[in-house]
């Protein structure tokens, strides 16, 4: 019987069926514990976020409430006050904060000490700070009028007897309180710019104004717009400043939507009308929130 033919030496690759990838499910006990830990957070979110918002929308569901608001002359004046308060506060505050952040970029010891003093208004609690502003402007016994009388021999005005003086001090107090915060934000943004870019601008002969216009601002433009949109959202809902500084005087002539809503809800016993007054800002808030989200997404893609 002939011998079987010899198989040539070598290896033959045999394709093996790939082993299936099994998704390992966690044990039921782990799922149970995960749900148990999640339930308290979900309950708090529903109780303190979802329920108040839903209840507020339910209170302001009647369209006749908004007709009552429009027919109230105080509401229309309040809308104008709110627009002025938001536009002036946000734009002046953000622009000055961007400029002042450049001053604090200088590497001198006394500037660093001055920065610690500069941020004190932001570090102070809002309530005592704004109450102090109110008592400084309370009239002839206030600090401002007493200072005018002592230094210049003139009698200062009764600040809260005039709508525009009262609203002006509301705006000044708000800027004084919150500008240091945004200055620190822009200072951090400036410090994130590589030092080589500043040095290249200096080599090209750019002075400070040109370096700001052609180097700093283009690099911080997205950040500036995002911070401005965020600040606008916060400022529209600001209640503390007007409530504690001017207190709506004279005769509720300096009210903003946040304080007017509290007035309707508690002083006149019309909570539905108060919620409607606050929610009337939604047509402005929602587009700003959408624009902010898109700006943040665009910035994230660029990074």
Which helices and strands appear, and what pairs or packs with what?
Elements: H1 28-59, H2 63-71, H3 73-103, H4 109-118, H5 120-123, H6 126-136, H7 143-152, H8 163-192, H9 195-203, H10 208-236, H11 240-244, H12 257-267, H13 271-279, H14 282-302
Which features characterize this protein?
2 domains, MetI-like fold, mainly alpha, 14 helices
Q: How many discrete domains?
A: 2
Oligomer: single chain
- Gross morphology: globular
Question: How many helices in DSSP terms?
Answer: 14
Instruction: Give a quick account of the main beta sheet: strands, pairing sense, barrel closure.
Output: none
**Into which percent range does the helicity of residues fall?**
over 70%
Distance between the amino and carboxyl termini: 78 Å
Strand content: under 5%
Please report the first level of CATH classification, the CATH class of the largest domain.
Answer: Mainly Alpha
Rg estimate, integer Å:
30 Å
Mean model confidence by pLDDT: 86
Sequence of secondary-structure elements: HHHHHHHHHHHHHH
The CATH homologous superfamily of the largest domain: MetI-like
The fold-level CATH name of the largest domain is MetI-like fold
Tell how many strands the DSSP assignment holds. 0
* Structural class assignment: mainly alpha
Any idea what the CATH architecture of the largest domain is? Answer: Orthogonal Bundle
Low-confidence sequence ranges: 1-15
């Amino acid at each position: 019987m002939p011998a079987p033919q010899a198989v040539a030496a070598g290896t033959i690759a045999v394709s093996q069926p790939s082993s299936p990838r099994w998704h390992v499910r966690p044990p039921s006990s782990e799922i149970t514990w995960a749900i148990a830990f999640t339930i308290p957070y979900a309950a708090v979110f529903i109780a303190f976020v979802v329920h108040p918002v839903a209840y507020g929308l339910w209170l302001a569901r009647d369209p006749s409430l908004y007709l009552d608001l429009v027919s109230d002359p105080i509401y229309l004046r309040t809308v104008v006050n709110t627009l002025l308060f938001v536009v002036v506060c946000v734009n002046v505050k953000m622009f000055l904060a961007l400029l002042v952040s450049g001053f604090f970029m200088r590497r001198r010891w006394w500037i660093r000490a001055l920065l610690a003093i500069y941020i004190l208004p932001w570090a102070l609690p809002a309530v005592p700070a704004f109450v102090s502003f109110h008592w400084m402007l309370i009239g002839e016994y206030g600090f401002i009028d007493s200072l005018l009388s002592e230094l210049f021999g003139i009698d200062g005005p009764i600040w809260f007897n005039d709508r525009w003086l009262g609203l002006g001090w509301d705006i000044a107090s708000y800027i004084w309180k919150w500008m240091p915060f945004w200055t620190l934000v822009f200072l951090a943004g400036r410090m994130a710019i590589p030092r080589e870019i500043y040095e290249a601008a200096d080599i090209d002969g750019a002075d400070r104004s040109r370096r700001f216009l052609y180097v700093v601002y283009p690099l911080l433009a997205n950040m500036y717009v995002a911070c401005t949109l965020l600040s606008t959202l916060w400022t529209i809902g600001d209640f503390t400043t007007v409530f504690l500084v001017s207190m709506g005087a004279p005769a509720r002539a300096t009210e903003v939507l946040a304080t007017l809503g509290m007035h309707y809800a508690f002083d006149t016993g019309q909570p539905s009308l108060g919620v409607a007054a606050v929610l009337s800002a939604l047509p402005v808030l929602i587009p700003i929130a959408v624009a902010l989200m898109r700006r943040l997404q665009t910035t994230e893609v660029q990074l």
